[in-house]
Amino acid sequence: MPSGEKWRMKYERLVRNRNMETQESTRQLKVAREIQREMAEILRSKGMSAFDGALVSVSGVKISSDLSVAKIYVSIFPSEKADGVMTKLKENARGLRGELGHAMGKQLRIVPEIIFYLDSSLDYVEHIEELLKK
């Protein structure tokens, strides 16, 4: 098994275990999955030009037990542009929440407040692979 494949499997296991540790309810998981899907579509529709040519993807969503706050984890490629993109996302969080509400209006009564976090786990996997190659 190539080393890249092994680390990818470890990363996927880590993501699965993150959900197991918090013991989120079925409703939380379903809403988080739907928010992840819709937010990914919203960011995709804005295009790379809106984020200075960076590729932004939603890697995960965690939602509070009362469904009032959603933590959205995004990965940004190339990672050198991460600071600028995160600033833009945080500045436009209110507008993005409005677009999310428009997209999910029939499924949620109250659209959760969204907070963006940088998911640097892929950078960490790359760093480990580089160390293993040495």
Quick one: biggest sheet? 3 strands, mixed
CATH class: Alpha Beta
Q: Which architecture would the CATH scheme give at its second level? A: 2-Layer Sandwich
Order of helices and strands: HHEEHHEH
Instruction: Assign a percent range to the helix content.
Output: 55-70%
User: What spatial form do the alpha-carbon principal axes imply?
Assistant: globular
Verbal overview:
By secondary structure, the protein is of the alpha+beta class. It has one domain (3-133): GMP Synthetase, Chain A, domain 3 (2-Layer Sandwich), CATH 3.30.300. 56% of the residues lie in helices and 18% in strands. It has five helices and three strands, in the order H-H-E-E-H-H-E-H. The protein has helices spanning 3-22, 26-46, 82-91, 93-103, 121-133, and strands at residues 55-63, 69-77, 113-118. It has a three-stranded mixed beta sheet with strand order 1-2-3. The longest helix is centred in the N-terminal third of the chain and has 21 residues, at 26-46. It is globular, with a radius of gyration of 16 Å.
